[in-house]
Amino acid sequence: MSAKRSKRDDKESEDVFINLELEGFAPEEEDRDGIIQMLKQLLPKTANLRLGGLADYIISREKIGTVVKYSDYEAEADDDEDIVFSITSLINLFEPAISQHPDIADLRKFLETFVSSSKPSNSDTGKIVKVLTGASSEKPALLVNERYVNLPAEVAEKSVSALLDEINGLPENEKPTHIIVLTRAIKSPGSSELIYIQPEMENVRKFALAISETNVTTPTVDDEDETVTFVTMVINVPSLPEIVDNITSSST
């Protein structure tokens, strides 16, 4: 396994500090199960998509994407090298990916239907659907930037920064024009204010060309209903450097 990024120490928790020797790697076949788990976090439980096929696509993209795992040294010591702490990549939702990968075609169709079901529907809903379908020659790609929920944004910071260079290095027929961001939030009882699972997404929202919110209610293990608000945003690719700078400066 060849390292793709330099290793770093990450600390988590207000009272208890956990030192992790983490390192970025290009996604490989051994990461498939970990990537599937990250996709389960990203997408609503109602999606009913073949996540294994999407994971295979992410792994197949040699020029883009990073998984963060234990460094080689720590993985050998703990026998846990296959744990994927975060994944950063893109799933192209335009040709030729749509024709070549039926699972991606299903993903795009799901996103179109999912966004269209947002309540209340507004002009942004239509804008997002138009971008998803490429109505005006847009080339959308879904951002996959998931991490263990209790880990800070800094864990994937280098991966996200690297994504900018990776996009620029893609062949022209694979370069997206717009990024679809799908992120989760909850609302406090009696409040309409969104609390983002990934706090940095509040800053990303400021740069969005269009935004929709879709509530998904599912039963928990305690048979109590849990409502999660999925926020879908459209981002112009040229805005990405400013967004990354904004997030980085906010976390320091």
Automatic annotation (TrEMBL):
GO terms for cellular component: nucleus. Signal peptide: none annotated. Belongs to the BCP1 family. This is Protein BCP1. It comes from Hymenolepis diminuta (Rat tapeworm). The lineage of its organism: Eukaryota, Metazoa, Spiralia, Lophotrochozoa, Platyhelminthes.
